[in-house]
TrEMBL record:
Name recorded for this polypeptide: RHS repeat-associated core domain-containing protein
Chain spans, region Disordered: 1-21
Biased composition (Polar residues): 1-13
Source species of the chain: Candidatus Electrothrix aarhusensis
Domain RHS protein conserved region: 141-176
NCBIfam families: Rhs_assc_core
Pfam families: AHH, RHS
Length: 364
């Protein structure tokens, strides 16, 4: 058994498999850390992954669903039982989807029109849903009503009538569905519920709300923390719209800043790493190596600044939204300021200068 008492075995005959049981459900993972089978007594699920650790096929009983992705790893479609749902993106945010019958020939598929068309709108610079626009023969606009963490609890039409309503478990699973007149797949910010698997697509990974864990390891590896399946510290006060966990570092940075005497702003804020803690950007990696060379923790208070979580919280300040600051221009500017520093003192002074410029609205 592991530390939590869950049963685990690791056979090593012809392949590496990790097995475990959690609250009556049995899980099996492959050697890459991907969930390949889940059995709960009601529905057996089998998953197939490609060499890039992306889910490409699911088997739920006799139902087979296939998935496809673009070069950036964003899901482009899922296809099951003669229906294909295609997804459209604005950066990392899901912009819309269409569903149409899969034609036998490519030419016919190109000519077929979608049966349903849906568009999602979000609050500025966030993944928090604002509205759902349905096209087709009966176009309609629905408005989201969300919990403080951005998770939808109700969907209302133009007349204010509730068309969808639900309550949630601790990790975003549906506890009770009160009204279900409109299909509403959005869950925690950045998550899309797949009915065929019971999993939530979360940009880079898939999330199991029943277990409160992702079903594959974090692409960031151990840089994401010791638990590579963790969603966040909790789902009430944290979000992970990309499926890339940096919440443990953010919590450590916040604590360090508070202990150093930094005043926590009144607006809804995030603890931002000036040199980013888990970014795959080559410049950020080089700066993290520079920090290590001079004995500076990535979660050092000098490497932090409190920023508004979104643009709507930045009103009355010169501060950029935390959701908006991680641009290539920002990373390049930070790198240029720090790359030639030869001492711990020089690095800390440069971090202080960057922080002051951000506060004044002059960076990057």
């Amino acid at each position: 058994d592991d530390a939590t008492g869950d049963e685990q075995t690791t056979p090593t005959d012809d392949q590496w498999i990790r097995e475990g049981r959690h609250q009556g459900t049995r899980y099996r993972f492959d050697r890459a850390g991907n969930l390949v089978e889940r059995r709960d007594g009601e529905r057996d699920l089998r998953l197939v992954w490609d060499a890039n650790q992306r889910l490409v096929e699911s088997h739920a009983g006799d139902k087979i669903t296939r998935y496809g992705y673009d070069p950036l790893g964003r899901r482009l479609f899922k296809e099951t039982e003669g229906q294909r749902t295609s997804f459209y993106w604005d950066g990392d945010a899901l912009l819309g989807e269409t569903t149409a019958a899969v034609a036998a020939e490519t030419e016919q598929a190109a000519e077929s029109s979608p049966d349903t068309t849906r568009e999602y709108l979000y609050y500025p610079e966030t993944f928090e849903p604002l509205a759902l626009i349905e096209g087709g023969d009966a176009p309609a606009v629905y408005h989201y009503h969300n919990d403080p963490n951005g998770c939808p609890t109700r969907l209302t039409d133009a007349r204010g009538e509730v068309k969808w309503a639900a309550s949630y478990t601790a990790w975003g699973g549906i506890a009770e569905l009160y009204v279900d007149e409109v299909t509403q797949p959005i869950r925690l910010q950045g998550q899309y519920a797949d009915t065929e698997t019971g999993l939530y697509y979360n940009r880079y990974r898939y999330f199991d709300a029943e277990a409160g864990q992702f079903v594959s390891a974090d692409p960031l590896g151990l840089a994401a923390g010791s638990n590579v399946y963790e969603f966040a510290v909790n789902a009430a006060g944290w979000i992970d719209p990309l499926g890339l966990n940096c919440s443990s570092d953010a919590a450590k940075l916040r604590k360090a800043m508070e202990e150093a005497g930094e005043l926590t702003p009144q607006f809804k804020n995030a603890a931002h790493h000036i040199v980013m803690s888990n970014s795959k950007n080559s410049r950020m990696k080089k700066l993290r190596d520079l920090f290590k060379k001079h004995g500076i923790s990535i979660n050092d208070a000098d490497n932090g600044i409190f920023l508004p979580k979104g643009s709507k919280y930045a009103i009355g300040t010169n501060l950029p939204a935390h959701s908006k600051i991680h641009t290539n221009a920002y990373k390049e500017a930070v790198y240029d300021r720090l790359k030639n520093k030869k001492s711990e003192k020089g690095i800390r002074q440069a971090l202080s200068d960057i922080k002051n410029d951000i506060i004044l609205g002059n960076f990057p």
